[in-house]
Structure formats: structure tokens, C-alpha cells
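for the writeup, i need someone to sanity check this before i put it in the appendix. the sequnce is what the collaborator sent (i think, or maybe the updated version? ugh). structure was predicted straight from it, no edits. if anything looks off just tell me and ill rerun, i have time this weekend
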Amino acid sequence: MSDTQYAEPKKGLFYYLIVIVYVLLAAFAFLVSTERKAIIPLFPTIFRHVCDAGVIALAILYFLVTAIKTRIHAVLDLAWLWSIPYIGIALISLMIWILNQTDLNYIIRGLNSVGSAELTALAVACAIWIFGKKAVDYTFYGAVIAVVLVVVQVILDYGFADFGRQYMTLLITFTGKTGPAMKYMEFHDLAQGLGIFLMYYMWTLKKNLRSVLLFAASFVCFSLSLKRIVVIALIAGLMIGWFINKLLFKKRWYFLIAFEVALFLGAFTYLFLIKQGYYGTVMNWLGINTMSRDAIYNYYSGFFEISPDYLGRGLRFIYTHTSETTDVIEVSKNAVIAVHNAHNEYITYFIELGFFGFIFWLWSNSWIKLNGIRRRYGWEAMTFTMMVVVYCFITYLTDNTYFYYSINYVGFVTGGAAVISSRKAAVYEQNIGIRWLRRDERSEKGE
């Protein structure tokens, strides 16, 4: 059942004005996420959430003008599934903060992160409600504008010849030894979102010009900000999707359980290697350059114990710690670096949420999302969300991407589009609508 079976409203001038404003909001939000000067001045990252509020305002305006309720129940349901992890870790942190009598500065930073993520989830829900699966394309247009603006700035600074030469070197060598132009294109936040766009357009690729152009554009944008871990995450996500589609339906349930078990075992094994100091040894044996992450992980291994009685330190503890401490990390006999973020979400959320809080973090960001979508919309809808989950958990290995704006926005919008495009989505929406209608009728009768 396609998205068009939702009986889409006619698209007039007002609709296309909404589209234009949305694309511009997305472009500005993603441009801010690059943290790069690009023709216009560099804005603080808080402006991303101003854009989120703008998208929500667009949805309110759209409803007031059109009074359309298409997809609204399914979209609200998705927003709730996306919100469960954030609400849960906020409540867990609240208990930790009370027990530890935490400083108010920690608490404000933690709640700010959760509130910002919730705002992003609601903005994406609003975009999907207005545009349906087209929300992916319109969001991607915004990302393209952001990338193009940065590229123009880089060409102005370094020249077209240097830019082209360094870009080709990056594609051929797949290393960071390219030059300052490509170094400038290493987006702090947007790169992970561009990887999900590429995965989505590869997954939905069809034999028509528009589909091919979207795939090509997503590949170029992604390759301009190439990151090794994102390439690995992209490949793993596609492989998971391919494997699920090859499985018989009765075997998919067992695969989902096996995936969850493997995620938990893998996460705790990974933490054990770090805690025991074996991480660097394993990486050296594999010939992987950790870029000093082994030293960083060794430093943070002193902040936690892998034990059920480890309660945690509360959300954003590490962020606050790095801004206040004067500690340094020894990366070699002759070199030290200042303490900064753990570059690892498994360490981060074990330290901050504790043993059982970390279990909730794993469970809510995998099983709750995946099984919730499977039960309501079926395996077809769940497959791409599972690809995104795998993609995200791989990026968590080397970067603090959990609260990154772009990976969440793009992950939500592509996963949401896959859900509402599934065959069961319109049926689910219709059934919910019928139940609400019957409830309203009973209310009118005084029952």
C-alpha cells in the first residue's frame, strides 16, 4: 500500500509555499550543523532548534488553513516511539541527580539535550504529516543547499583547482591526507545525516531519472564529507536490510531476537575490553589507527565499573566534566592532549546512566522502536528503521552522535517515510480513525 493511498490533498500555491519555507528551514538547520562559515556568517547551533520550532509552526498553519488530518494518527504514534528513549533516560537521570545531589548546572545541560531532541522528533513528525514520504526529498534538498554553500566558500578560499584535486585524492585514497579544502569539508554533524540519505536513496533506487539523480546527488554530498566509520555503518545497514528481505517471514522474528541479543552481548563485551585495557591491544592487532581514542577510552575507564551496583552520574556529566577539568590525557611518551568528549556513546551512556540505565538505553533505542513498528506496520516498514538503528549504533563506536542533530533528523524522516509508505500504514491509520470516531459517537450519546 503506497503513501498515495492516504487520499492526499490537492497541492496548490499554499502547499508549495509551505514546501519552499520548509526547504529553506532545513537548509539553514543543516548549514548551522556543519559549524562552517559558508557565504553567510556562522550561527550558533541553537538556531537548529529555532528551525525545528519553525517547522512545527508551519504544521500548525497548514492545519489551520486546510483542516487536513491525513496520517495524523500514524505520525503521532511514530513521534511517541521516537520519544520513549529520551523520556526514559531523562527520568533515569532525574533519579541519579537526586541521589547524587547533583549541581544544577549538570541538570540544566542534561534536560536541555533531551528537550532539544524531543523538539527535533516533533518537527520531523510535523514534516511527515504535511508532506508524507516527500518529506525525505524536501529535507534532502535543504541538505544539498547547505553542502553547496560550504563548497562555494571552500572554492572561494582555496580555488577550484585545489578543491577538485583534493576531492579526487579523497575518493582514490580514502584517507585524511588530502589537504585543507577537504579538511574543511569534514562536517562535524551533517556527515552522519548525509550517510543516511545515501542509504535511503540506495535502498529505494528505481529505474527512473529522478531516482537516479537523487541517488547521485546523495553520493556526491556524502563523499565530500567522507568519514570511515560512516562508510562502515552505511554498508552494515544495507547488508542488514538485504538479509532481512531474503529471510522467510517466520524466520525474521528469530533474527530480530538474535540481533537484540548480539547487540547487548557486543556492547558489554566492548565495554569490558575498554575497562580491562585490551581495546588498544585489539586495535593494534587489527592494524586500525584509533587516532588516540585508545588513550581517551583508558582515561574514561576509570569513571565506571561494570557492575549492577554502578548507578551512573547523570546525563551530560562527561560534557560538563570536559568543560571544567584541567586533566590531560597522555597519548604517547612525548605527547598529551586536553580531556574532551569520550568519542564513544557506549562509554558515555554507561558512565552517565549506570548499569541498568545503560541497558534501558540499548533496549529503548533498538527493541522498542523495531518491535513497536513491526507490530503496528509489519516487517516491510520495520526493515529500514532497523537499517538506521544498525547505522547509528555503529557510529556510536567512535563518535558522540546520539544527540547529533542531523543523524536524528534524517534518521527519523527516512524511517518515518518508510513506515507511512508501507502497505499496512494506511490500514492502521484507518483503524485508529474508526476507533476514535466510535469513541466520539459514544461520547455524543453520553455513553
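The mean pLDDT is 86. The CA atoms of residues 193 and 410 lie 6 Å apart.
thx in advance!!
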